[in-house]
Amino acid sequence: SGVPPQLPFWRRDIAARHDSRGHRDGLERRGDRCSGSVTVAMVDVLTPAQRQLNMSRIRGKDTKPEMALRRGLHALGFRFRLHRKDLPGRPDLVFPSRRAVIFVHGCFWHGHGCPMCKMPATRPEFWRAKIDGNHERDLKAVRALTAAGWRVLMVWECALRGPGRLQEAEVLSRCSGFLRTDRTLWGEIAGELRASTA
């Protein structure tokens, strides 16, 4: 059994990114993946030097959501390896005896489409290309892992942080359920999408 051709945790498949002429489909026509059908632009209140310093300090591993998940799963008795370089996508948590991996993805960096993902107003073309590249790499890694017999779980940042976050016990329970069964090939855990009250 392989990965379904279109994974539900991404808004569109790679093949859908090209129009009938073979050109890359413009994000402007479809709306922005990070903010749904309406483009929300944030005004940057920092100078370029301040923004560069902030961005340079964003970590790719050992993030707060990842550390919370690691502590919780370890307390539940699960043992795992971290960031194995020999596996596609370098999964955050690897459970070799269960043939399972968990990715803890930041909603902005991986283009989740939840309220925590807003496209910056500064250099939007750069950010769209970067997030699209991350998205394509994620999809490729998931397909390679499942083809090699690994089960994959995505835990999105919005499940552990932000206005739609789930209770930590619920996230840990879902992760535990995924790890304890071998019937589920892949899955995802995301926060609740809340409608605005405006």
Describe the structure.
This protein is α/β, with parallel strands linked by helices. Helix content is 31%, strand content 11%. The chain has 5 helices and 5 strands. The protein has helices at 27-30, 48-56, 64-75, 124-147, 168-180; strands spanning 81-82, 93-95, 100-105, 151-156, 186-189. The chain has a 5-stranded mixed sheet, with helices on both faces. A hairpin with a 4-residue loop joins strand 2 (93-95) and strand 3. The protein is globular. The chain starts with 26 loop residues before the first helix and ends in a 9-residue tail after the last strand.
Short précis:
The protein is an alpha/beta fold and 198 residues long.
How are the elements arranged and paired?
Layout: H1 27-30, H2 48-56, H3 64-75, E1 81-82, E2 93-95, E3 100-105, H4 124-147, E4 151-156, H5 168-180, E5 186-189
Parallel strand pairs: 3-4, 4-5
Antiparallel strand pairs: 1-2, 2-3
Helix content: 25-40%
The whole-angstrom Rg is 18 Å
User: Biggest sheet, open or closed, and with what strands and sense?
Assistant: 5 strands, mixed
Low-confidence spans: pLDDT under 50, at least 5 residues? 1-39
Return the average pLDDT rounded to an integer: 77
Order of helices and strands: HHHEEEHEHE
Number of helices: 5
Strands, total number: 5
List keywords for this structure.
disordered N terminus; 5-stranded mixed beta sheet; 198 residues; alpha/beta; globular
